[in-house]
Records
---
Amino acid sequence: MQSLLNPKYTSLTTQSRLKKFSCVGEMADYIFEAYKDKIALIDSGVEYTYAELSKKVGAIRFALSELGIKVGDKVGVFYPNSADFVIASMAVSSYGAVVVALPYHLDEKTLYGSTLKFQMSAIIYDSASGERVALAHKLNPNLKAVISDSIGEGFAPANMVEPDAPCAIVFTAGTTGQSKGALLSHKAILAGTVNGCMGFGDHDIFNDRYFLVLPLTHIFGYVRNMMTSLYTGSSLYICRDTKNMFREIPAYNPTIMIMVPALAEMALGLTRVMGTKILGNALKIIVAGAAVVAPHLAKEYDKLGVILLAGYGLTESANLVSGNPTTLANPTSVGFLYPNQEYKVVNGELWIKGDNVLTEYYNDPEETAKAFEDGFFKTGDLVKFDDNGYMYIVGRIKDIIVLSSGENIAPEELESKFRELECVRDCLIYKGTNDNGVEALIFEMTPRADVLKAKGIENIGEYCIQKVTEVNNTLLNYQKVSKIIIRTEDFERTPSMKIKRPKNIL
């Protein structure tokens, strides 16, 4: 099996610069000194060097110590995407407390419930969020507050904790679809951070300009976008509103972007209307993940001189499990497993063990017990490997469709066949009823209308049905879809931009 540590995928120069830290506090001390004069963050027109970041992080650590917060205490971080989130999360984790990454869309009741479920000792926010936090303080009088826009000039150093010490709790739907908090240790967060440096060949990952548009409370944004950027001494531009991203990208000129496929598709479509200037003039790499990456994306970005790399990960694995350094040549694969992981495939399901795997679902022993067996985390994902070690996601166990004939269908595996069509932007297969009221597999798709129109195709719906039917005719009888729906609007999506998949119940 090939490895991402092969020098043609991760250069020996990059490998020699991958430092191993025991905890986030040790990493923070290093980067704040090693890169002190470099720009770390840009937010709302304000630039922060690593040295300035160090002062602000130290000031929040001092505020935590003044409140009597102990190492290991849970501290909520409640901000939208902003420099404040980065500073607060780095302060909490380098202090040795546990970051509870609170999605900013939480209403006041859910926020209060979260302070109880995750046993928070304090919550960090700014005065603009005071009204939404008020209920939590009223009903939980022991909850302490750190209001960041009134922080003083004090400074407290980082605390060194053990690698196994808890570092962050990140919300996840897990393998059961129920919202839980994945507790990740310092070694897990740092393993995910280092994994983010692999698979780029000779590209200097230590000298990048990142553009952040993903939620920092999502593991892909937290680890791959924020932590890897800081670890490599890169600059991170924070886009607060996705509506502005295509105005802000060319102004900042990022060299690398971390995106979900839906955003990568949107950007690609806009280049056909507005030209490549909307991507700036320095973009070299897009890392796409958190949902299925359609094969055409790598091909289309290659025409623009941009390398698109696909990967696969979970909140429970501190984001990254595998990465594909050759997406253009192997567009349907999620690549090679990152090093320092053990794995096995049990009845088609990927099980993993390693430093990057969560410790537990916090305060949820039943779900934790279901998720582990023999020390391995059961991902819930069905996979296969080819002879060269490339991994392919076949589907998710919870999404398996059981037909009345007894046949099992993995919808993602079928969808991947249709996604290879140039006309398909995105698609979904589920169990429903056809026009005659009979149980059937239903296929819905959004077409790549801009591409088809540019080719002079006028009746897009008819053309798509023809192409989908051609693929459908190659499938086994029980795999065939019986109804094709061409959508004029995008699918309903989750906050991480995955398509919301209907439950297959009849």
Note: The first strand starts at residue 39 and ends at 43.
---
Amino acid sequence: MDQIHNMDCLKGMRKIENESIDLIFADPPYYMQTEGQLIRVEGSIYLGVNDTWDQFNSYNEYDQFSFEWLKQCQRVLKRNGSIWVIGSFQNIYRIGYIMQQLGYWIINDVIWSKKNPTPNFMGTRFTNANEILLWCTKSPKSKYTFNYKTMKHINGGKQMKSVWEIGICSGKERLRDDKGRKLHNTQKPIELLKRVILSSSRKNDVVLDPFMGTGTTAVVSKMYGRKYLGFEKEEKYVELIYHRLRKTEESIEKNLIENVYDIKEKRVPMKRLIENKFIVPGEFLFDKNGENKSQLTQSGKVLIAHSEYSIHKGSAKILGIVNNNGWDYWHVKRNDILKPINDYRKKVNETKNS
């Protein structure tokens, strides 16, 4: 754990035990198929992705390579773990097809919308301003981790959508040599990996990255209390990753590390509130507007049309729906002020914890 291995990911993953990884983030070669030089408008040469690790002889060779590493990922991934794979139009549809053929279940495709994309210098097509992430599990029955409330918190209290507007690495975040040249052509931004890791894992989970590159996956894992494991064929990048990790400290966002926003309230029966004398049998419960009142029975249920219901089923019946959270729905009157019964559930939990 917490190591980057200087080796091919296929050799490395074969050494990993079955179903031992909680989360995988894979940023594989895209097989960009760049032809000729890309010239900027002012005449300078743009250095795109022309690295040897991104070169293949044919689609068949690329597909076979993709099948093999995805098969290994499937083997090492826990039953309830999940995998994210990022790609562009050149490869992501082939990757998605192979994943479905292997039996992976796609939960979401997320669009990384780049705020500052590289322009299309020739003016022959739209500026390519996005990449696609496939978020998948091993099967439709996987009980995967999704920290919904954490992501909502990160998104300013609003439900996070599947389009993420994040800039490409630039400024201080972009790793460069002493001559100002990019150290890696496909460095991914910290914010992108932050969303992937915080949405799909918990503290101390093991995060695997088969194609570590500059190590952003490892850096973000260390920042947020996850364990990391990765493979990188080029030694110069492994050294770079360890250099980044030595400078990486745990984030000050402790609530994100501890998954505070997604910790579920402990179950408390209504009878416990009665035993603690927070509410009294015979008194009335109301909705937030002080209407739709129902009387509380000795057993901790609500009386509606001479029938007893749990606080959840009772509120659902009033609303005309199948299910509803009664803790959020019901209130009691205290000094002519409506007070949520959920406040008393929290007090019971606080009493138990103390």
Note: The two ends are 36 Å apart (CA to CA).
